[in-house]
Amino acid sequence: AQKITQTQPGMFVQEKEAVTLDCTYDTSDQSYGLFWYKQPSSGEMIFLIYQGSYDEQNATEGRYSLNFQKARKSANLVISASQLGDSAMYFCAMREVRNFNKFYFGSGTKLNVKP
Amino acid sequence: AAGVIQSPRHLIKEKRETATLKCYPIPRHDTVYWYQQGPGQDPQFLISFYEKMQSDKGSIPDRFSAQQFSDYHSELNMSSLELGDSALYFCASRGRSETQYFGPGTRLLVL
Q1: Interchain CB distance below 8 Å, A47 and B42
Q2: Which of A35, A102, A106 sits opposite B42 (nearest CB)?
Q3: CB contact, 8 Å: A108 with chain B?
Q4: Can you tell me the mean pLDDT for B6-17?
Q5: 3-state class (DSSP) for residue B84
Q6: What is d(CA B20, CA A64) in angstroms, rounded to the nearest whole number?
Q7: What residue of A is the nearest CA neighbor of B102?
Q8: Which residues make Cβ contacts (< 8 Å) with residue A21, sequence separation at least 6?
């Protein structure tokens, strides 16, 4: 079974609007971490935000926030006030405590920000 | 802040040749990961090292090998290269925090 599912291959958002990128995960572990990375067309992978499974508050980093719904096993990324530079591929990833040194990535969502 | 360094950034090889990719982790990071990302695909985990020992193995072909050295840098050795090995190869490192930080990647093209 897929560990990480991103159901939106591509999305468009108008500049200055907010956008939500979906991510659901599958694990039987009680302890795990969820991550979002951004990959611009230049290719590098940029860490955006992290949420631990025991964190009670949703993680936030500047314009990025993670809408963590543990019971639904979802970890959606919310980008507020989209900018043209946000156009990129976005990957959701998970690390389980039992496979401590292995990350599972989703298939990614290509976000296009329209001026 | 120092980031993960990968060299070379671009590499062109012919089929059946060998290639060595190098990774220098962020200072004081003791864990290194290697990933392969084909065109339009998500990164696929290859192998990881913790304190110079292999800690986990993913979908790494037998033609590939890797190691982590005493200074924590890591090398991915790829032999008998095939056309399908053309990809972006990432190294990532992790210290005490949960997060992996990725290098800029090495683009390998096999002709």
Answers
A1: no
A2: A106
A3: yes
A4: 97
A5: helix
A6: 37
A7: A45
A8: A6, A8, A11, A36, A76, A77, A78, A79, A90, A92, A109, A111
